[in-house]
Amino acid sequence: MKTKARKGDEANKPLLNQINYVLLHLHLAGKHDAKPTHEELKDWLHSGQVDVLRMNK
Q: Per the confidence metrics, is the pTM higher than 0.70?
């Protein structure tokens, strides 16, 4: 699933929409124990591990 979500974008930080894609598919598959906690998600966003917005110039 990670490969599918990140295909063609592996050299960059994960984008928020890629994280959302994985979370949705984990939820739909009933794999709630594999999802990160709210605190983990907040840490990823606030520490810069995930790009919330990437713009092309």
A: yes
Residue 54 resides in a domain: no
d(CA 57, CA 34): 36
Q: Which amino acid is at 22?
A: V
Q: CB 44: neighbour CB atoms within 10 A?
A: 16
1-57 pLDDT, tens digit per residue, is: 888 999 999 999 999 999 999 999 999 999 999 999 999 999 999 999 999 888 776
6 in a structural domain: no
User: Could you tell me if residue 26 is inside a domain?
Assistant: yes
Range of the domain at 25: 11-47
Domain count across the chain: 1
Task: Tell me how far CA of residue 47 lies from CA of 22, 39, 42, 50, 57, in angstroms.
Answer: 20, 12, 8, 8, 24
